[in-house]
Amino acid sequence: MKTILITGATSGIGKSTAELFAKQGNRVIICGRRSEVLESVKTELSAFTEVFSLQFDVSNLEQVENAINSLPAEWKNIDVLINNAGNAHGLDPLSAGKTDDWDSMIDGNVKGVLYVAKMIIPGMKERNSGHIVNLSSVAARQTYINGVVYCATKKAVDVISEGMRLELTEFGIRVTNIQPGAVETDFSLVRFKGDNERASTVYAGYEPLKAEDIADAIAYCVNAPKHVNVSDMTIYPSAQSEPRTIYRK
């Protein structure tokens, strides 16, 4: 049984990953910004395992520090960190981009990964054991038009994962970088600021990945034998050949 901390655990990939690990008998620490949703997920998962919830915004260092420092002693030894929280805002050319959207993506997708990892890594190093899984994107592999800042943040996650692996392998800590392709979650709804009609077109005419597909991949990496480290994994739906190309019926 592992103690697993998952950011962005109230929906999408994060929630599916928390559900899967809970059903496998692991203890899970679910993290998110919305207290009422956190409590709902906690109640749901408590049918399978021990669950602890932490409310904070990964982009706010003070909130990250206060939340993780508040963990009771019996929850502090975190075996696995899943850096899942992140966001996409807007799909505009740089000349028309909104700087608030840029800040939100950079703060959540890059700083958030760093802030949470900084709090967890020292304990893993002391125990000479641990596993960090960072959620990147196929957007890191190929920049696409009007998505420059989002793509840049996910490229940063790739670099952070590589840097973590260079620094932490000697301490027995595994690092995995996951690059999902098109996954049908609230991702596009957030990107298009609640425009359901526009968001729905992203997943029309083909079968996209589901959040559960990525959760399965994360679990495979975490549950691999200790001498095995899946360093990088790219996952596309069958209809997607590269980040910009999806074959629709």
Automatic annotation (TrEMBL):
Gene3D superfamilies: NAD(P)-binding Rossmann-like Domain
InterPro entries named in the record: NAD(P)-bd_dom_sf, Sc_DH/Rdtase_CS, SDR_fam
Keywords: Oxidoreductase
Database matches in PROSITE patterns: ADH_SHORT
Keyword Oxidoreductase assigned: yes
PANTHER family, per database record: ALCOHOL DEHYDROGENASE (PTHR42901)
Family: Belongs to the short-chain dehydrogenases/reductases (SDR) family.
Name of the molecule in the record: SDR family NAD(P)-dependent oxidoreductase
Lineage: Bacteria, Pseudomonadati, Bacteroidota, Flavobacteriia, Flavobacteriales
